[in-house]
Write a structure and sequence with these properties.
- The complex is a heterodimer of chains A (269) and B (428).
- With 269 residues, chain A is mostly helical.
- Chain A is built from 8 helices and 4 strands, in the order H-H-H-H-E-E-H-H-E-E-H-H.
- A two-stranded antiparallel ribbon of chain A has the order 1-2. A two-stranded antiparallel sheet of chain A has the order 3-4.
- Chain B has 428 residues and is an all-alpha fold.
- Chain B contains 16 helices and 2 strands.
- Chain B has a two-stranded antiparallel ribbon with strand order 1-2.
- In chain B, helix 3 runs antiparallel to helix 9 and helix 11 crosses helix 15.
- The chains are: A mainly alpha (269), B mainly alpha (428).
- At the A-B interface, helix 1 and helix 8 of A face helix 4, helix 5, helix 10, helix 12 and helix 15 of B.
Chain lengths: 269, 428
């Protein structure tokens, strides 16, 4: 009974699928935008691969770029000032750094909304009080929080680096409907080709304390490296612990294999 | 529930004797996974995956319980509570990545376990009940994994919940009310997140219960084996302990090495970037894709693009997707061949490997956008999937002429060794 019924059910599905094949056009609707979107350029960082480390000088430069440029519009909600100890700052430096920020607070005497100096336990304050303020200031687009940005985009750090360095004039053969509208800017690394963020970096926009030349490319690399750290501060530790666990288990597995062979030595199987 | 030559449990220590009279747990363990359980001597490495699936479930339960201590199931804070685990909880990043990739490892070993069963005919009499309970476990796993993926409340969590609960709205008349009842609202929201968290915590223990039944049902006829010939006498078997405990120990080591490599070196490889963006009901991701282990079924869902008879394409897809799993319940009766192992089934063996390739193809199609050539490939893949189980298998099991089979497991083992020793010098 199962087999004849199954046969009929199978024929039903197959008929529906065969009809679907013949009624689905074999040609895709052409998508012109595809041909203009570029694949991200590879960015090599010290935190890559199976032997990663943090390039602390680069992370410090990257944080300077975030603080002086990006933080005007983008928040970094998940990162606390205390976390930047990872970047090589001492406790005193972190306290001083935190003090340079005003964070939202409540007046302890009157209960009124106020601000106070930042503490190491505070997170980086957001540039806008809320999404409405962010939209109003940015041509109706909300600048995304950057804490996780290198994990939250297809292409990761390569994409962020390519986007920052990828601003250019639209190519001459770009169809009119793909040309940037008012308040939009052309960037072939952005999936929609045009984005609300204007080119954020210009040569020598920041002055690096360590004397590194602040080209757009250098600043893009540095801030991307910093954002790789903000997205996963435990990245280096993760891989290091991973090797210890891996070798421990490798020894366990070899011993388990030998004991398996030993126990089965007299049994044909 | 075992063979007559199974070694009987004889407690020697007075304490163990006392225990055996009051609560014979040591006897149960001895007879189930100890020297008292005879197992075919010729099991190959594909028989490791049952134990590995059990290990994967235990890892998920343990890491999951710890995660639940730090996670908050509320749409306002769920996303940030996961990041709190990643950043501020001691070794939280490890627990969370282990749980995330543990789900993938669980599905990898379960898929290998299922295909082992398909190749060696483990679903056939006298093990139909083992197979049926296995399919129930698989369905429960899918439900648990889906609800777990919603908990971080990222973009893919939200939109995955939206799409998957949307399947129910394809059902005529009652569909939309059922969907609202499941979600606790019109769209996934706090009610949804809370109930999914509750069920995600509950279902693993239901799975554990069904696994106990699965093993219980297995221990009545005993394990199948690569020849598919039933055990005839004592020399066909070895005691589970120490023979298979040792082999499973080695298998567990290899499993953990792969697990560790994934968790520590490439923890986000099998995930989606979009799930690191907090859920936003106003912004739909460009491609909504389920986790990799659902992709073949997702491809079947998307393959139906034509309103056939009085059923529209969407409902066809939903019915077909559920049918693609439900038909596994009927497999023991769809395949009427008395021969279990593909080793002796030359024709079935070919179709088995076509099915493997077909499921892999469907998996790739499931990850791709609804564009050609992926649409037609998923349609062809879905045709083969249904044809394999519902048309080809019943016919093959009728017309196939099996190869000559050895009389017993021991005869097969000794013949293999004789062939190995005689061919070795010739090869050298």
């Amino acid at each position: 009974m199962v087999r004849p019924l199954g046969f009929l059910v199978g024929l039903g599905f197959i008929t529906a699928l065969v009809l679907a094949i013949f009624t689905t056009p074999l040609k895709n609707e052409p998508n012109v935008a595809y041909s203009f979107v570029k694949h991200p350029r590879h960015l090599k960082l010290a935190s890559d691969g199976l032997m990663p480390h943090w390039d602390k000088a680069q992370l410090q430069r990257g944080m300077q770029v975030y603080k002086e440029v990006c933080s005007a519009c983008h928040s970094l909600n998940l990162v606390a000032f205390r976390n930047i100890a990872d970047l090589g700052y001492t406790e005193g430096q972190i306290k001083t750094f935190a003090k340079g920020f005003q964070v939202p607070s409540v007046n302890p005497d009157t209960g009124e909304v106020a601000t106070r100096d930042g503490l190491p336990s505070d997170h980086f304050p957001a540039p806008y009080a809320n999404d409405v303020a962010a939209r109003a200031a940015n041509n109706n687009a909300i600048p995304p929080d950057l804490s996780l940005i290198t994990k939250a985009r297809e292409g990761g750090k390569d994409y962020i680096y390519s986007l920052l360095t990828g601003y250019q004039n639209p190519p001459a053969n770009l169809p009119t409907e793909l040309k940037p509208g008012t308040g939009l800017h052309y960037n072939p690394y952005f999936p929609n080709l045009n984005l609300a963020m204007a080119k954020p970096l210009a040569d020598n926009q920041v002055t690096y304390a360590d004397g590194t030349k602040a080209s757009v490319d250098q600043m893009s690399k540095d801030v991307t490296a910093f954002l790789v750290w903000t997205a996963e501060p435990k990245l280096v530790k993760r891989v290091q612990v991973g090797w210890a666990v891996f070798f421990f288990l490798l020894i366990f597995t070899v011993l388990a294999y030998l004991s398996y062979r030993n126990i089965w030595a007299d049994k044909k199987h | 529930m075992s063979f007559p030559w199974a070694k009987p449990y004889e407690p020697k220590h007075p304490l163990m004797k006392w225990m055996d009279e009051k609560l014979p747990i040591p006897r149960l363990v001895y007879n189930a996974t100890g020297p008292g359980y005879p197992v075919p001597r010729n099991l190959n490495y594909f028989w490791n995956f049952g134990v590995l699936a059990g290990a994967a479930l235990m890892i998920q339960i343990i890491t999951g319980i710890v995660l639940a201590m730090h996670y908050a199931a509320n749409v306002g804070v769920a996303f940030n509570s996961v990041e709190h685990i990643m950043r501020d909880v001691n070794a939280g990043w490890f627990i969370r990545y282990a749980h995330m990739n543990g789900a993938s490892m669980f599905f990898i070993v379960v898929y290998l376990h299922i295909f082992r069963g398909l190749y060696y005919g483990s679903y056939k009499a006298p093990r139909e009940m083992v197979w049926l309970l296995g399919v129930v476990i698989f369905l429960l796993m899918m439900a648990t994994a889906f609800m777990g993926y919603v908990l971080p409340w990222g973009q893919m969590s939200f939109w995955g919940a939206q799409v998957i609960t949307g399947f129910f709205s394809a059902i005529p008349i009652v569909g939309e009310p059922v969907r609202q009842w499941l979600l606790g609202g019109f769209v996934p929201d706090n009610a949804t997140l809370n109930r999914f968290f509750s069920l995600h915590y509950l279902l693993p223990f239901v799975i554990l219960g069904v696994i106990i039944l699965h093993i219980w049902a297995l221990h009545i006829p005993g394990s199948n084996n690569p020849t598919g010939i039933e055990v005839k006498d004592e020399q066909d078997t070895v005691p589970f302990h120490p023979y298979y405990t040792a082999k499973d120990g080695f298998g567990l080591g290899v499993f953990l090495l792969v697990f560790v490599a994934l968790t520590f070196f490439s923890p986000n490889m099998l995930g989606h970037a979009d799930n690191y963006i907090p859920a936003n009901s106003l912004s739909t991701p460009a491609h909504i894709v389920p986790e990799w282990y659902f992709l073949p079924f997702y491809a079947i869902l998307k393959a139906f693009t034509f309103n056939f008879l009085w059923i529209d394409a969407k409902l066809w897809g939903v019915i077909a997707m559920f049918a693609s799993i439900a038909l596994l319940f009927f497999l023991p009766w769809l395949d009427s061949s008395p021969v279990k192992s593909s080793t002796y089934r030359p024709l079935y063996r070919i179709f088995f490997w076509v099915l493997v390739a077909d499921v892999l193809l469907l998996g790739v199609c499931g990850a791709m956008p609804a564009e050609q050539p992926w649409v037609i490939l998923s349609q062809l893949g879905a045709i083969y999937y249904f044809a394999h189980f519902l048309v080809i298998l019943p016919i093959v099991s009728r017309i196939e002429r099996p190869l000559p089979m050895p009389n017993s497991i021991t005869e097969a083992v000794l013949a293999k060794h004789a062939a190995d020793t005689s061919s070795a010098p010739a090869a050298a």
